[in-house]
Amino acid sequence: MNTQLMNENNSHVSRRNFLKGSAAVTTVGSLAGCVLLEGDFGTEEIDGIPDEPFRIVQLLFESGPPAFYGEEARNASEMLVEQINDDGGLIGEREIEVVDRLDEDAGPDSLISDVQAMAQEGEVDMIMGIVSSAHSLAVAPAADDQQLPFLVTMPGTYQLFEENPEMDHVVRTAGTNAAGAVGAVRMVEQMDDVETVITVDPDYAWGHDHQEMFTAGLDAVGADVEVVESRYPELGETDYSAHVSAIADESPDLLFSSLWGGDISTFVSQGVAGGLFEAVDEALLIGDTGAPLLDSLGADMPENVWLGGRGGYQPNYRYDEDEAHREFVDEYYERYDQLPGWGAYHEWMGFEALQEGVERAVQIIGDWPTGEQLMASMNNIAFEAPHGQHTMHGPQAVAPAVFGRPTDDHDLPVDHPLLGEFEFIEAAEVNPPEGVLTMDWVDEIEPMTG
Amino acid sequence: MSTRLPTFGDVKAGEIKGVLLDKRLLAGSALFVFLALYPALTMNAYHTRLLAWIMCFAIAALGFNIVLGYTGLLSFGHAAFFGAGMYTVVIAMERAGITDLVVLLVLAMIVAGVVGAIIGALSVKTHEIYFALLTLALAQLLFVLATRDVGGLTRGTDGIGLTRPDFLGLPVSEVPAQFYLMGFYYHVILVCLTATILLLWVVLRSPFGLTLKMIRENETRAEMSGVPILRYRLYSMILSAMIVGLGGALYAVVVGHITPEYLDWTMSGEIVFMALLGGIGTFLGPVVGAGGFILLQELALSVTTYWHFTMGLVLFVVVLTLREKGIWGGAKELLERLDERRDNS
Fold first, then answer.
1. Interface ipTM
2. Phi then psi for B46, rounded to 5 degrees?
């Protein structure tokens, strides 16, 4: 397979020529991509499609507090791989096999060693997934060093490509955390009567980045809003009562939070019990919130909140209009008896990019791509997502921000609320232009147009 | 009052010859040659990296054992020294533009030594659980500073990446990552480990080392003999911190990305476990423990999703059955018994 081709390339083609080839793929591909999206793909003239499956190793949390996120990703990947293989595999010719899953809880030491082992053995075509931003910052450069293709699907740190701009074996299909944080700024711009805000974010880089972008963004757009207090509970906090009481006493007009996973669930639950959502006018909970939170809170979910974040990853968002989304949600629900959460959606986008990238590369070069060519072909593409076109700026996806309010008025077969009254903020309003550093851009953003 | 402390005594030519023909020295030399040639013989980058990882932690565990095994103090703050070594390398490279590996390693050892002196000065007056908790608390202060990104030095929990250092003016950082590790950096780590073993072998058999043992065995007696206990404990903390810092500094380049987790108490726990697993009552036990711990983790990860449980179970059984002897002491004891049985028969 492709490993063999990669080895042949490595041994017989100079790195300079190899890179030139990849650059050519990127350039030509940018022009041809749109045509290919519409084109009918035929494989009868394509040589060199390896006989063995396309082998993927997934990196995700299988233990520890973020394991629920990993479980969603695992569920989605099992389902999607089966679906793709039922249609013959990638470009209808080559099946996918997830040959292993590595537990992120082992830490970056072990993950980087495993990357080395996979690169050494040459029996893996691509690694995929990863939840933790810190892990992505450690593993991605290591994978790039080893020339092992890495499709990053979940973490949101804006620093991934800003700190490592030269990586040519890494692509990320998840939007950055800028989309959620600046999306929240855009929401505030549309709100009346918001003068005071309290922020509550987890006490690690994800939370601090969100708080920093949100407050800087508010300043930049000239919002007449004061962030009166910023609180940082520990990651994995179990008792939010002190935070709840303090915020309730302050009674801000708006509560902003990037808490996610079990943390946001515990916080909202204890907040409801402590009367927090009666004390605040509005809450913007942007830490990849949606169906799992609504499931866990059920009827206790307050109504004066906006949930969402970096993408339209809500099961009933454009459910009727988008057939692919409807099928994804229905199939997921049928298999796992729950609606897909953000981990599942992120993984779905990864597989969409992979299929699109393989098609594009094979169409352009007329052969099965090497690892680097495959990664290059995933740059600057666009494919369908629940929120419309999911666009890649180079190797990095730019996602829109989508928020909604809890409502029981939905048609999906679950007895908990889902979101309604969706607000869609297009990607260009919540992401920096290509080549501009995120924080530089946030400091200079203009008020939203239209 | 003067104190007569144990000394080496005069070493004669015959004794030197005896030392050189010592089975342990010969075995150690053979192992060194084997390890030095391993990357070239196998061309296996994964194994090379795994060995580099083990050797870095072997240095750290050896350093830790100065305090636990030789001075009798259980520290839960050694992550501070390991992390100090790591962050010194990355900050010195990024902020001060220092790119020479030798300078970076020396700097890391000095910084770790200073951190060791501060933590030691604040904690050596205490004993047992109080010492463990105090070192834990002081180390956690560094962890918190790193997570808070104080001064913009550490980039918080997302961590900070580093490039490969050069070596004595040679631009080795420009070679591809794989060759850098297999052809150069691995051997630097091997030399550092060997030097650490030799240094500690000498130091711990010197009057200084024997005094530390005396303090461990009977503190009151040592004090009554005129040994300035607190000062010696502080010295052992500083020496320990410098060696653990060296391990951290070397490992920073191997891992390439540093997060505050390396300063967290869980890292201290891992170093303690390595020493216990190998055997704190033996000189080379921590080296064996580091290898055993990392290989066990990699093995458990590859066969089961319940790898935490598997590791906990193995460590529980080893520590419960072999106690301070650990794997290395247990293996030595087993060999001695076999020898005795052979002699008797």
1. 0.70
2. -65, -50
